[in-house]
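Blackboard transcription, Thursday session:
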Amino acid sequence: MIEVALLLSKGATCRKVEAGEVIFSEGASPLYYYQLVEGRVRWSNFFDNGKETMHWLVQDGECFGEFALFDGKPYVASAVADIPSTVLRLSADAFHELLAENHEIHLEFSKGFARHLRFKFMFIRAMGSNSPEKMLKELIDYYTEEGKHVCKKCRRLMLTRQQLANISGLRVETVIRAMKLLQRDNRICIVKGKVIV
Amino acid sequence: MIEVALLLSKGATCRKVEAGEVIFSEGASPLYYYQLVEGRVRWSNFFDNGKETMHWLVQDGECFGEFALFDGKPYVASAVADIPSTVLRLSADAFHELLAENHEIHLEFSKGFARHLRFKFMFIRAMGSNSPEKMLKELIDYYTEEGKHVCKKCRRLMLTRQQLANISGLRVETVIRAMKLLQRDNRICIVKGKVIV
DNA sequence: AGGGCTCTATGATCTGCCTCATAAAATTTT
DNA sequence: AAAATTTTATGAGGCAGATCATAGAGCCCT
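(Written on the board underneath:)
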């Protein structure tokens, strides 16, 4: 979200992480600002029974865990590399300096918060429907509008049913069945198992 | 969230609204910054079947609908006065001027966004448990920690079971039954039907 | 005090999501 | 190419939250 060169000039360090590596854990104190240069990071809660609640699947250029830097409280969810990734890390102090010096950057973060909050509102509204189909349709519509997780070339939604299950809080079998119903009613287009938006 | 005198000096107008009066509607374009001087405002989605999903029960001094001013998209939920209230309204332009001029105020908004996002993360994590008791316990713990909706004098949680239902997305009967189970297991203290935290 | 409303409460039933089991297909790794 | 892993798929059954019905308790309003 912040220009890489600027981050580096402020003393940010670049690190490569393997798939499955934990970048920060739920409950830990926020000490750094993190930005994903390349790769994919799951920002999730992991439960004892193996279930995962994925709050955000971080893509290239996005930051994650940033809001903990603003209220100073522990991380509410863990960040785990989903594939081999490259991550930039900047100390909290340097991050706050950057914001104080540059109103434009600060405003960009405010806009980012607004977008994220909008997503959460949409998500919780969709949950209220108590219908897997409506829930998934809203989610897919959101990603379509935002162009997130959508392949620019083939317009495929680059999310597996398992990932949609982890995001929506539904079980994978329920997602599979709901997607079939959505397809049957021509509410979504599925080609070779892949959603085309 | 912003000092009242400062808002008024920027041209904010004060308005009294009756209980039930709509301040802004889901889908409408954001034109103003709103701050509750006194009263109570429900920030909710209202569904055709009468169900309500309450995202936030706004209290004295809190602002609402503010994040739409940052991304410029329509409101995701409506704001309705829950009791007779007094609301301050500032034009979007003046609001952005204020932020640009005053880094401290801007930072306060960022912190507010962070707190709200933290709440949403907590909420969605709690939903993932698929257990009304865990969900409600987390909600009550959150309000306890934040001191929100808690009477300073008598330590009563000032939320009805119906309100908890609208917030949690559960049905009121489910909330009532879950609260009884929590009480039976000594996880919460209920006196005369009221939760004491 | 009385009327109207909301809130709290409880039982019965139903629906649908979760769970478990199994297996084929697709993808990744060796 | 083969093996291993993940993803997609389908069926059967259980369980719990939603739903519907009913009613008492508490509260606000004239």
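Lecturer's comment: Residues 37 and 61 of chain B are 5 Å apart (CA to CA).
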